[in-house]
Amino acid sequence: MNPPSRIRRLAGVGSRFLVVGALSTLIEVGVFNLLVYVWGWDVVTAKVVASLVALVNAYIGNREWTFRHRDRRGRVSEVTLFLVTNAVCTAIGAVLVWVGVEAVAAVLGREPGAVAVNVVNLTSIVIVVLLRFVLYHGIVFRVAPSK
Protein backbone atom coordinates (compact mmCIF):
# COMPACT_ATOMS: atom_id res chain seq x y z
CA MET A 1 0.00 0.00 0.00
CA ASN A 2 1.48 3.37 -0.99
CA PRO A 3 1.88 6.14 1.63
CA PRO A 4 -0.98 8.44 0.44
CA SER A 5 -3.39 5.49 0.41
CA ARG A 6 -2.25 4.43 3.86
CA ILE A 7 -2.69 7.97 5.21
CA ARG A 8 -6.20 8.20 3.71
CA ARG A 9 -7.14 4.88 5.29
CA LEU A 10 -5.73 5.91 8.68
CA ALA A 11 -7.57 9.26 8.42
CA GLY A 12 -10.83 7.40 7.71
CA VAL A 13 -10.36 5.08 10.67
CA GLY A 14 -9.32 8.02 12.83
CA SER A 15 -12.39 10.02 11.82
CA ARG A 16 -14.76 7.17 12.62
CA PHE A 17 -12.95 6.61 15.93
CA LEU A 18 -13.44 10.30 16.80
CA VAL A 19 -17.17 10.17 16.01
CA VAL A 20 -17.64 7.11 18.23
CA GLY A 21 -15.43 8.77 20.83
CA ALA A 22 -17.44 12.01 20.73
CA LEU A 23 -20.67 10.14 21.39
CA SER A 24 -19.01 8.10 24.13
CA THR A 25 -17.63 11.32 25.64
CA LEU A 26 -21.09 12.88 25.73
CA ILE A 27 -22.37 9.78 27.49
CA GLU A 28 -19.45 9.77 29.92
CA VAL A 29 -19.71 13.49 30.76
CA GLY A 30 -23.48 13.25 31.18
CA VAL A 31 -23.30 10.26 33.49
CA PHE A 32 -20.36 11.80 35.40
CA ASN A 33 -22.26 15.04 36.05
CA LEU A 34 -25.41 13.16 37.01
CA LEU A 35 -23.50 11.06 39.52
CA VAL A 36 -21.47 13.94 41.00
CA TYR A 37 -23.90 16.86 40.93
CA VAL A 38 -27.28 15.16 41.24
CA TRP A 39 -26.51 12.11 43.37
CA GLY A 40 -23.46 13.43 45.26
CA TRP A 41 -20.94 10.71 44.35
CA ASP A 42 -17.21 11.37 44.76
CA VAL A 43 -15.41 12.28 41.52
CA VAL A 44 -13.20 9.18 41.26
CA THR A 45 -16.05 6.69 41.69
CA ALA A 46 -18.22 8.74 39.32
CA LYS A 47 -15.39 8.77 36.76
CA VAL A 48 -15.02 5.00 36.85
CA VAL A 49 -18.78 4.31 36.60
CA ALA A 50 -19.29 6.91 33.85
CA SER A 51 -16.38 5.42 31.90
CA LEU A 52 -17.88 1.94 32.17
CA VAL A 53 -21.26 3.14 30.91
CA ALA A 54 -19.63 4.88 27.93
CA LEU A 55 -17.55 1.76 27.30
CA VAL A 56 -20.56 -0.17 26.01
CA ASN A 57 -21.15 2.43 23.29
CA ALA A 58 -17.43 2.54 22.49
CA TYR A 59 -17.14 -1.21 21.96
CA ILE A 60 -20.18 -1.49 19.72
CA GLY A 61 -19.29 1.61 17.69
CA ASN A 62 -15.66 0.69 17.23
CA ARG A 63 -16.22 -3.00 16.51
CA GLU A 64 -19.12 -2.54 14.11
CA TRP A 65 -18.10 0.72 12.40
CA THR A 66 -14.59 2.06 13.03
CA PHE A 67 -12.67 -1.21 12.81
CA ARG A 68 -15.24 -3.37 10.98
CA HIS A 69 -12.66 -4.23 8.30
CA ARG A 70 -10.23 -5.61 10.86
CA ASP A 71 -9.56 -9.20 11.87
CA ARG A 72 -12.33 -10.84 13.87
CA ARG A 73 -10.22 -13.33 15.76
CA GLY A 74 -13.04 -14.33 18.05
CA ARG A 75 -15.35 -12.35 20.29
CA VAL A 76 -13.96 -13.68 23.56
CA SER A 77 -10.36 -12.77 22.74
CA GLU A 78 -11.38 -9.39 21.32
CA VAL A 79 -13.68 -8.50 24.20
CA THR A 80 -11.00 -9.58 26.70
CA LEU A 81 -8.40 -7.32 25.06
CA PHE A 82 -10.97 -4.50 24.86
CA LEU A 83 -11.85 -4.84 28.56
CA VAL A 84 -8.22 -5.04 29.70
CA THR A 85 -7.29 -2.05 27.55
CA ASN A 86 -10.21 -0.08 28.92
CA ALA A 87 -9.58 -1.11 32.52
CA VAL A 88 -6.08 0.34 32.19
CA CYS A 89 -7.37 3.45 30.41
CA THR A 90 -10.18 3.93 32.95
CA ALA A 91 -7.68 3.67 35.80
CA ILE A 92 -5.43 6.23 34.12
CA GLY A 93 -8.44 8.52 33.59
CA ALA A 94 -9.50 8.19 37.24
CA VAL A 95 -5.98 8.97 38.44
CA LEU A 96 -5.82 11.99 36.13
CA VAL A 97 -9.16 13.27 37.48
CA TRP A 98 -8.09 12.71 41.08
CA VAL A 99 -4.71 14.43 40.59
CA GLY A 100 -6.28 17.25 38.56
CA VAL A 101 -9.04 17.97 41.08
CA GLU A 102 -6.54 17.86 43.96
CA ALA A 103 -4.18 20.21 42.06
CA VAL A 104 -6.98 22.68 41.29
CA ALA A 105 -8.12 22.55 44.93
CA ALA A 106 -4.56 23.27 46.08
CA VAL A 107 -4.22 26.21 43.69
CA LEU A 108 -7.63 27.66 44.59
CA GLY A 109 -7.34 26.90 48.30
CA ARG A 110 -10.87 25.44 48.25
CA GLU A 111 -12.91 22.73 46.57
CA PRO A 112 -13.16 23.39 42.83
CA GLY A 113 -16.53 24.14 41.26
CA ALA A 114 -18.31 22.30 38.48
CA VAL A 115 -16.54 24.13 35.66
CA ALA A 116 -13.06 23.33 37.00
CA VAL A 117 -13.97 19.69 37.68
CA ASN A 118 -15.38 19.31 34.17
CA VAL A 119 -12.28 20.90 32.60
CA VAL A 120 -10.14 18.38 34.50
CA ASN A 121 -12.45 15.54 33.42
CA LEU A 122 -12.41 16.60 29.76
CA THR A 123 -8.62 16.94 29.83
CA SER A 124 -8.35 13.40 31.17
CA ILE A 125 -10.69 12.19 28.42
CA VAL A 126 -8.53 13.78 25.68
CA ILE A 127 -5.38 12.14 27.04
CA VAL A 128 -7.04 8.75 27.40
CA VAL A 129 -8.67 8.93 23.94
CA LEU A 130 -5.26 9.27 22.32
CA LEU A 131 -4.00 6.26 24.26
CA ARG A 132 -7.13 4.23 23.40
CA PHE A 133 -6.77 4.93 19.68
CA VAL A 134 -3.20 3.65 19.69
CA LEU A 135 -4.17 0.53 21.67
CA TYR A 136 -7.34 -0.20 19.69
CA HIS A 137 -5.57 0.28 16.36
CA GLY A 138 -2.51 -1.77 17.26
CA ILE A 139 -3.78 -4.43 19.66
CA VAL A 140 -7.54 -4.78 20.11
CA PHE A 141 -8.85 -4.47 16.53
CA ARG A 142 -5.70 -5.42 14.70
CA VAL A 143 -5.25 -6.11 10.99
CA ALA A 144 -5.66 -9.73 9.91
CA PRO A 145 -2.27 -11.43 9.46
CA SER A 146 -1.05 -11.86 5.87
CA LYS A 147 -1.29 -15.36 4.48
List keywords for this structure.
mainly alpha; 147 residues; 4 helices
SSE diagram, text form:
Elements: H1 3-38, H2 43-66, H3 75-108, H4 114-140
Short structural summary:
The protein is built from four helices and no strands.
Q: Your description of this structure?
A:
This protein is mainly alpha-helical and 147 residues long. Helices cover 82% and strands 0% of the residues. The chain contains 4 helices and no strands. The longest helix has 36 residues. The model has no long low-confidence stretch (mean pLDDT 87).
Structural class by helix and strand composition:
mainly alpha
**How much of the residues is beta strand, in percent?**
under 5%
Query: Could you tell me how far the N terminus lies from the C terminus, measured between alpha carbons in angstroms?
Result: 16 Å
Helix content: over 70%
* Rg (CA only): 17 Å
Low-confidence stretches: none
What order do the helices and strands follow? Answer: HHHH
